[in-house]
Write a structure and sequence with these properties.
Layout: H1 4-21, H2 23-36, H3 44-58, H4 61-73, H5 78-92, H6 94-111
Length: about 110
């Protein structure tokens, strides 16, 4: 997997171009994300950890990068990320052992940024 920031950078322009053609889809998706990723019965950090584990399950490098960044921004600890990724491995078996380390590396990349 490329560095997580590079993945997000590479997706930025194509996503902008697609958004021009289907703005309502993107607006709806952004509204859903904004509604979900706030503190509620589960705090926003926990929701990012869940999203990161699901990204591993879906084997989506863009999602892994995005939610690794989100977990780092919400000040998830290395131990919290590792445990969430342990659940992803349990639920996905072999593919989880490939994509969970990618997610862990992406989190470490973003957590190291000031």
């Amino acid at each position: 997997m490329e560095p997580a920031k590079q993945i997000l950078d590479e997706l930025r322009q194509p996503a902008r171009e697609l958004r021009e053609h289907i703005p309502g889809v993107y607006e709806g998706y952004q509204a859903t994300s904004a509604a979900v990723l706030v503190d509620g019965a589960l705090d926003a950090k926990t929701k990012e950890l869940i999203a990161l584990a699901i990204a591993v399950s879906k084997q989506c490098d863009g999602c892994i990068a995005s939610h690794a960044r989100g977990a780092a921004r919400r000040r998830a600890t290395t131990e919290e990320v590792a445990e969430a990724l342990g659940v992803a491995i349990m639920m996905n078996g072999g593919p989880g052992t490939v994509h969970a380390p990618r997610a862990f590396a992406a989190f470490q990349e973003f957590a190291a940024q000031p």
